[in-house]
Amino acid sequence: MKNDINYDVNSIKRRKKQKRIIKKIKIVTFLVVILLIGAFAGIKYFNKEKEVAKEKNQVSNTFTTNNSTTSKENEQASKNGTDSKDDKKENNKDEKIVMTVDDIWNKKDGEKIAFLTFDDGPSPHTPKILDILEQYKIKATFFVLGTSAKNFPEYLKKEVELGHSIGNHTYNHKIRYSGAYTPDEFVKDVRRCDNAIKEVLGQDFKTNLVRFPGGSFNHKSYERNLLASGFKHIDWNVENGDARRLNVPKDELVKNVKDEIGNHKHVVILMHDSSTKSTTVEALPEIIEFLKSQGFKFGVVSQEN
Ligand SMILES: [Zn+2]
After folding, report:
1. pLDDT reported for residue 84
2. 160 CA to centre of ligand 1 in angstroms
């Protein structure tokens, strides 16, 4: 009888001990899992930060290199006083062509000028686009979205620093011109974008150039309101077709431009600077090469119209 009781007490003690051990194991396992999740999330965050920093570095490197080349060239030019005439000629050759919207469409000067335009940016692709344009010493026109300007202010600043032209592509990019989105609301959205641009580039920055999301076609009352508010808009006569669907192959984009140029002397080419349009970046050098081979110069759309 006594033995039985002893046995029971011992077995209860043993079971209690076992329970305590199991509880401890559970707690330790729980802590280990939490630690692992924390470490994993930390590594992911760190990698992302690194990527962003890398991207930023790439942009600033590109621009520092270019700036230093320019200042070296200038230094050289000022040293060789005798060559100043030739330098002037050289400079004239690279002179920026700036044309107002009216001149682009109406001036019949017989000159072949291509206006590369990029809508929807800035985006993660902006540095690559700027890099390509720098390689070819070409200036382009960027129609920026208010939302994108807020997301990538540094890229917008770079576009201006490098001498590209800036246009307004509205703040919210609504493309249904009807219902609650009245002509007044449209102009409000354009002004909101203008403010977003000024927040990045300073209150003195001015551009009255606009591109309608989706183009101005058949939106007459919206157009009238916009013009009455002091803005001027421009559509396009050639497109690379990168908005027709996602990931249009590079060769197709190049072909679209070749097919649509026809006999146009002044070509305004619609392309997109957007995170989903990587083939646009891939196709850009070939499009530029083609335009050059056809005798086109490159110009920008004026910010003052
Ligand atoms: Zn757009």
Report:
1. 43
2. 20
